[in-house]
Amino acid sequence: MGVAIRRAVESDREAVTRLLDEAFQDDPVSRWVFPDADHRRRTHHKLMGAFLDLVLSEGRVDLTEDGQAAALWLSVPAGEPGDHEGGVSGDHEAEDDGPAQMREAVDPDNERVELVGRLTGAVHPTGRAHEYLLLIAVTPERQGEGLGTALIESVLDRCDREGLPAYLEASSARSRRLYERLGFAFTGRQVDLPDGPQMWPMWREPGTTPAVS
């Protein structure tokens, strides 16, 4: 049975922010950015909302019809490696200092909000237009049912038709294995968060045959 997918709109913002907040509360990168659990519960939703606002404005948010999973995609032109990393505005000046603006908007005293954007932006591939999966979230009680895979594959099918690569950063070894099964490969330049977890940038060429598990 297929998964019904639609494009999210502004009226979905509150529900999708809540979904992202819930799904990423215990993600290794979120725990590093907000190491204090109480502070994370109070503040993490602001970071998720800022990412969502960016993608609602400049990209595409795919949402399962039941609202249990969402994928945030940005179309990155050639020559713009990490302009959208941690950015909250589409103008060029803002893009240049997007991570600092993100920190100011979300948690001004928390330098890690800015640092994660700068570190991931520094390794973002350049030179070729591609689809960038910024975030994908499945509500915790529905994880493992294939909703996230369905959301990703719907865009990868289009990438294959249009000859576009795709890119993402895996934030855990488990998610890295999932993306490898979808045809993504580690770029060889990992992100080492200071005193924190690793992230694995991953690239998929169009037409890549998924790995057999």
TrEMBL record:
Residue ranges of the TM segments: none
Keywords in alphabetical order: Transferase
Pfam family, one: Acetyltransf_1
UniProt-listed SUPFAM superfamilies: Acyl-CoA N-acyltransferases (Nat) (SSF55729)
Superkingdom classification of source: Bacteria
Signal peptide start and end residues: none
Domain N-acetyltransferase, chain residue ranges per copy: 74-207
Biased composition (Basic and acidic residues): 81-92
Record flagged with keyword Heme: no
Alphabetical list of CDD domains matching this protein: NAT_SF (cd04301)
GO MF: acyltransferase activity, transferring groups other than amino-acyl groups
UniProt region (Disordered), positions on chain: 77-109
Record carries keyword Transferase: yes
Protein name: GNAT family N-acetyltransferase
Gene source species: Streptomyces himalayensis subsp. himalayensis
